[in-house]
Design brief:
The chain is an alpha+beta fold. The protein has a domain at 121-175: Head domain of nucleotide exchange factor GrpE (Nucleotide Exchange Factor Grpe, Chain A, domain 2). It has helices spanning 2-93, 97-116; strands at 119-121, 134-140, 149-154, 157-159, 162-165, 167-172.
């Protein structure tokens, strides 16, 4: 019976050692699992941020593409606006009121469409020459302010603040 008790005590001790060893292994596995979970969480957050940045960048590129496509289309309408302006002048010269009225109506409608899409006419006559907005086609020496624009040969336009076409002008250069 003493041997049996000794065997039971040894068995009990062995079982407790195995239990302690299993618990230690289990704690290590839990710590490793926590570390992996944190690593996966960080990776997922980084990938999510990269994807959000990709979405924003793609949207911005699409917006820029739309703006550029619109700029090209609107730029092609500028000669039509010029022609309508010339038509109005010719109708005035020939004193044809009906023709002038028709040209003015079309010119106004087209101008409204252009303005609605961000196209604005560059102010020129009487303004100070600015090489960012004006192309100097001719300089003269007349009474008045230096670098003052005296005449506009062709209207200039901006699209959302960027030059679509510079105005072609005559500039006063006082000597």
């Amino acid at each position: 019976m003493i041997k049996k008790k000794e065997n039971e005590a040894e068995l009990q001790e062995a079982n407790e050692a195995k239990l302690q060893e299993a618990k230690t292994l289990n704690d290590k596995e839990i710590q490793e699992a926590k570390r992996l979970a944190e690593e996966y969480k960080e990776t997922m957050q980084r990938i999510q941020a990269e994807f959000e940045n990709f979405q924003k960048r793609t949207e911005k590129e699409m917006q820029n593409f739309r703006v550029m496509a619109n700029a090209r289309i609107l730029e092609e309408f500028l000669p039509l606006v010029d022609s309508l302006g010339e038509g109005i002048k010719e109708a005035e010269k020939s004193n044809n009121k009906e023709m002038k009225k028709g040209f003015v109506l079309i010119h106004n409608q087209l101008s409204q469409i252009m303005e609605k899409n961000g196209v604005k006419q560059i102010k020129s006559v009487g303004e100070k020459f600015d090489h960012n907005f004006h192309d100097c086609m001719l300089t003269v020496n007349e009474d008045g302010k230096d670098d003052e624009i005296l005449e506009e040969f062709q209207k200039g336009y901006t699209l959302n603040g960027k030059i679509l076409r510079p105005a072609k002008v005559k500039v006063n250069k006082v000597k």
